[in-house]
């Protein structure tokens, strides 16, 4: 029998398989599961267990600013450039969101 905690998690957790590599994307704010206003600006943590990742990446997600409105030279997703696969995966849940890696070099 499945534990109630596994059927209804207390914190948001997503298992990611992006270009054949696996990782865990999770939040530490339980309001993300039940309160839509908490989805304005929030943080998610990502861990892949890959050798190039020395610590959990803390991503800042802003669902009300759009990545295409930023200055093109600073935006990795501008026309003619490729967007990071993890950011594209996050945008399947929060379309148009801006993802900031908070000074960490994107590795996934």
UniProtKB/TrEMBL annotation:
Any one of the GO BP annotations: proteolysis
EC number(s) on file: 3.4.19.12
This protein's UniProt keywords: Hydrolase, Protease, Thiol protease, Ubl conjugation pathway
Deubiquitinating enzyme MINDY-3/4 conserved domain residues: 5-103
Superkingdom as given in the UniProt entry: Eukaryota
Reaction it catalyzes: Thiol-dependent hydrolysis of ester, thioester, amide, peptide and isopeptide bonds formed by the C-terminal Gly of ubiquitin (a 76-residue protein attached to proteins as an intracellular targeting signal)
Alphabetized Pfam families for the sequence: MINDY-3_4_CD
InterPro entries tied to this protein: MINDY-3/4_CD (IPR025257), MINY3/4 (IPR039785)
Molecular function per GO: cysteine-type deubiquitinase activity; K48-linked deubiquitinase activity
PANTHER family: INACTIVE UBIQUITIN CARBOXYL-TERMINAL HYDROLASE MINDY-4B, UBIQUITIN CARBOXYL-TERMINAL HYDROLASE MINDY-4-RELATED
Family in the record: Belongs to the MINDY deubiquitinase family. FAM188 subfamily.
Function: Hydrolase that can remove 'Lys-48'-linked conjugated ubiquitin from proteins.
Name listed for the protein in its UniProt record: Ubiquitin carboxyl-terminal hydrolase MINDY
Species of provenance: Sclerurus mexicanus
């Amino acid at each position: 029998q499945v534990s109630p905690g596994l059927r209804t998690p207390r914190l948001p957790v997503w298992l990611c398989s992006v270009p054949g590599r696996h990782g865990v994307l999770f939040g530490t704010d339980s309001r993300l599961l039940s309160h839509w206003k908490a989805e304005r600006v929030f943080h998610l943590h990502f861990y892949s267990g890959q050798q190039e990742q020395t610590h959990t990446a803390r991503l800042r997600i802003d669902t009300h600013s759009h990545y295409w409105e930023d200055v093109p030279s600073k935006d990795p997703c501008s026309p003619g450039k490729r967007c990071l696969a993890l950011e594209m995966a996050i945008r399947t849940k929060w379309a148009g969101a801006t993802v900031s890696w908070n000074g960490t070099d994107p590795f996934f």
